[in-house]
Amino acid sequence: MKTNQINRELRGSALKLILCLTGLLIYGSSFSQLSAQCAAKNDAFQSGEVAEYDLHFNWKFIWTKAGYATLKTTSTTYGGKKGYKMDLLAIGSKKADFFFKMRDTITSIVSEKLEPIYFRKGAEEGKRYTVDQAFFSYANGVSHVHQVRLRHTGEIVEADDSDSRCIHDMLSILAQARSFDPTSYEEGHRITFPMATGRKAEEQILIFRGRKNFTGDDKITYRCLVFSLVEMKGGKEKGVVTFYITDDKNHLPVRLDLFLNFGSAKAFLKDVSGNRHPLTSIVEK
Fold it and tell me: Which helix (H) or strand (E) segment is 53 a member of?
């Protein structure tokens, strides 16, 4: 496979991986349509939480460590309103840089009621560098987002979208979704939802796959909720990722399986600190 083809695949996988680590907990909508007001009560996380992940890619049946990602949550004030700031850093290893360079930094700010306010993503992927920003507002029961993309050439692309449902970015959905109760979920249930992607608000499809146990590299076994994210390609559904999140009040992602054209990728929870609740999903030996 040519190197530029691998780069294109990895560029897509980098974005998918970030979506997984931060935005794939969309199950929290309880599989119902969220109102445009977006307000929700935070029952899952607190300021000071830090989650760390190891990233692995597979090329021709060989698994190799490809980098790490860190997600940190802190209290902040934005526009005179108190809220939370979530920062995600994803960095590829030197070995992975030979095929594809990834240096992504993402920031999302939400209100204390978990309403999306501001989003920024700076992505250095291969030879491409872009900065995406999203500004959220609400009026007459409708959610609005103004998006701005700055390309490495200096070109600026702007877009505006509105929806009667809540429009999220890839981090704000995590903040809200983590507080919902999944006890009534049925296997096979699905929802669609709009997400700001830097160019427009795009529909995503999420399917609940059931409950399973997962044992990580650290030999810790977790009770997990399992979900799949799929996208529409040529009128057909294409699997993007399967992910496992802890079946406790934290709802932390502990394993992510990404499906790529040339192979696969995985992310495993390495460490978490400052979590609001005990990890009661750990299966005692």
Answer: strand 50-59
